């Protein structure tokens, strides 16, 4: 299995390597204006520079670890990641209980569904003007937008997850004497976990998209902000370095989610069930 | 054919059950009236559509009678409860719980102390040959093993009544016989009152003290008989076979009525 993973990982590297090689070749041949598209090598140099601490290490100023993480790139990545996680937790934290209620109670569903269906198609980006009006600049409007982005995928999947719970489990639990709250917490919730987790995955993805946009507009650090800042100075190498960092962070988050998925669904046998 | 007993465990009194769909009514149960004494092993036998599962569900409290009532002891059945543990054909184990957690669930609901749960579950798993599987999830078990867990889950409740809805219907013949013997052993040891739904005549004769044959719609009691063969019963035994012929005739008649009704319905459509 491990060998297989390694094989497919190496296979996956093939396309990026070819693309980068062609790109580097075209840059060196002088076919591309470096102002518009810098060479991969230039991007890599910028990326390293961007990640390196600005000042040399001074032991009296603080710990070595703090210094090592003081590079602009690292600080930006931490800033963005913090917003994604905090925003996601707010959004999912509100969506999960509402989804459980809407999925299990026809009354609450009837009450809320129209409202949800009207608000859901509005992209979080469209809230930017209001978000700034309501929350000013800085983290609050960003967190608002990100939690909005994470809210709906988690909500919709939680509703679907609760609704698809096989009634045989409910019958079995009632037969064992389960109260309404036990039924809810020990049967419906775990039975809905496969759906909820896929909602969480989509929600994190959306949060990641929204964080970049929010940073371009409302805050003065983070990867999204840095890309916009670089644009002002025509630093296209820094723009691309920032973009690649976003891609790698997204990949890391998705790998982590997939691990969590596998652990939490170790009882699940897939579609058959 | 009323059984005379000091205190019947289950009393089924004038039970009717009508299912209404948009354009018609189906009388699933009609005039069902009999008592089940404590400790009896009763099989409800009949073709599909005869209401045997409907009657079992009524005893379990999942679908109450349209009229009439069912009593367990002196309590009227109004909802499902752990005093009437049910074993389902589809096992209905909770897939996110391990074998051990499944068996312990009913006791947890009851609020039994942890140490006692552990002790009791271990004892039951041991008895049913499941002890090596205690940390496995249901998906890793065979059908026969899953049904053992489902039986252990009901036994853990320590309820006087065990309801079984074609529990071995999905198993292969060998596993099935194996579990039938296991069930007889359990019944003997725990002295449960068992109501067992099946459409297999041989299974009913092999297991039951008493067989209640039901008619196709409306579901009524066609024949209520005691099986007086000594256990373990031998399906090759002549008496066993005589009984099998007799019951086969009864079930066949109802099967035929079921068939005719379906042909008629198809002709109307």
Task: Describe the fold and architecture.
The complex is a heterodimer of chains A (273) and B (269). Chain A has eleven helices and no strands. With 273 residues, chain A is an all-alpha fold. Mean pLDDT of chain B is 93; it is low at 1-5. Chain B has a six-stranded mixed β-sheet with strand order 6-7-8-3-9-10, sandwiched between helices. Chain B has a domain at 8-83 and 159-268: Rossmann fold, CATH 3.40.50.300. In chain B, helix 2 (99-110) runs parallel beside helix 4 and helix 3 packs across helix 4 (143-157). Classes of the chains: A mainly alpha (273), B alpha/beta (269). The interface between A and B is medium-sized, with 22 and 26 residues.
Number of helices of chain A: 11
Cα radius of gyration of chain A in angstroms = 23 Å
Quote the CATH topology of the domain at 8-83 and 159-268 in chain B: Rossmann fold
Can you tell me the residue ranges of chain B where pLDDT is under 50 for at least 5 consecutive residues? Answer: 1-5
- End-to-end Cα distance of chain B: 41 Å
CATH class of the largest domain in chain A: Mainly Alpha
For the sheet with most strands of chain B, the description reads: 6 strands, mixed
Integer average pLDDT of chain A: 91
| Residue windows where pLDDT falls under 50 for at least 5 positions of chain A | none
> Could you state the CATH homologous superfamily of the domain at 8-83 and 159-268 in chain B?
P-loop containing nucleotide triphosphate hydrolases
Strand proportion of chain A: under 5%
Can you give the helix content of chain A as a percent range? Answer: over 70%
DSSP helical segment count of chain B: 7
Going by CATH, the architecture of the largest domain in chain A would be Orthogonal Bundle
- The CATH class designation of the domain at 8-83 and 159-268 in chain B is Alpha Beta
Q: Give the SSE order of chain B as H and E letters.
A: EEEHEEEHHHEHEHEEH
- Tell me which protein chains meet in the greatest interface and how many residues each side has: A-B, 22 and 26 residues
Share of helical residues of chain B: 25-40%
Main location (chain A): membrane
Domain ABC transmembrane type-1 (chain A): 77-257
Protein name (chain A): ABC transporter permease
Subcellular location (chain A): Cell membrane
